[in-house]
Amino acid sequence: MVIMNKLIKQIKKVIYRANNIAIFSHVSPDFDALGSSFALQYFLKSINKNAKFFCNDDLTLKERMLFDEHSIGKTFKIEDFDLVISVDTPSIQMLGIYGEDFMKSTNRIVIDHHQNIDLNGQVTLVDTAFSSCCEIVFKVLKSFRKPLSKEVVSALYAGLSTDTNSFVNTNTTVNSFMTAYELMNLGADVVKINETIYRTKTLKEIDFKKYVLSNMVIKEDIAYCLMPKKQLDKMHGTKSDCSGISSDLVAYQGVNIAFSIVEEDIGVFKVSFRSKYGYDVRKIANFIGGGGHIGASGATLKGDNIDQIKDKVLDAIDKNR
Asked: What does the DSSP 8-state code read for residue 149?
């Protein structure tokens, strides 16, 4: 905690000295990535900084219900910003089209709760003990001792809630509950967030669940589902629409490890792992060049076809479980 407090003080100094700040997160952003990014953008603007969040991908319908997609930047020019900040992202590759420019900046801050791979800054605040990046961002923002608006704390609560899967995932800690308590006290719109994320099903989500139920494979205590690009295009879906597949699969009785493989582009495959308590999928993801958490990890692989990737993943599970 002493080291974290020291790093937070450094982050404050760097932010106060900057005027134009660009914020980035990983490709196919989840609610933790979006919550961290938007909360930073809202707060930095409230202290008179010119802040802009840049994102590779379009938001899903649910994400657009909670976040203003129109405020997201697309075209980044490094000369327009004197500070860049990345959140919830452990690698240059996961910053997508912005990775190279991010690393060219001479004034960088990295904030994350994943095991860092190769993304670093002049200040790097990474702590894998936290269940979400939003928890760490909250600590940073509190240190400014400035009012936090409803939109800031709501964005942070959305990220915290989803990265713990409404506080049921094994990454949930006492600090997760304490942070939720503080955010609620500060005015987070918990009712809207819960209604949107957990009690609203879009027609597209239903179509994807139908596909998963019809195409999932359970092999002993492993469950998986494959999504070839042709099928993804047929369903007018994006990789973001597939983000919950592995989480749904691991919920089945008798399944301890689950994964999905989505063909994002021809020859490019996104692998997402989930596991029940006591099973470490981070080791499996690391083995094939990815990373993440013990109970939730991922990797991006290249290959000739989706079955080839499936066999590689099953082999990695066999060697690392």
From this structure: -
12, 144 Cβ separation under 8 angstroms: yes
Q: What is the spatial distance between Cα 192 and Cα 188, in angstroms, rounded to a whole number?
A: 9
Q: Which of 137, 124, 109, 105 is nearest to 39 (CA)?
A: 137
| Dihedral angle over CA of 49, 53, 54, 60, nearest 10 | -160
pLDDT tens sequence across 82-96: 999 999 999 998 999
Q: What does the radius of gyration of the chain's CA atoms come to, in whole angstroms? A: 19
pLDDT, tens digit (0-9, with 9 covering 90-100), for 21-62:
999 999 889 999 999 999 999 999 999 999 999 998 889 888
Q: What is the 3-state secondary structure (H, E, C) of 70-134?
A: HHCECCCCHHHCCEEEEECCCCCHHHHHHHHHHHHCCCEEEEECCCCCCCCCCEEEECCCCCCHH
DSSP code per residue over 251-268: TSTT--EEEEEEEEETTE
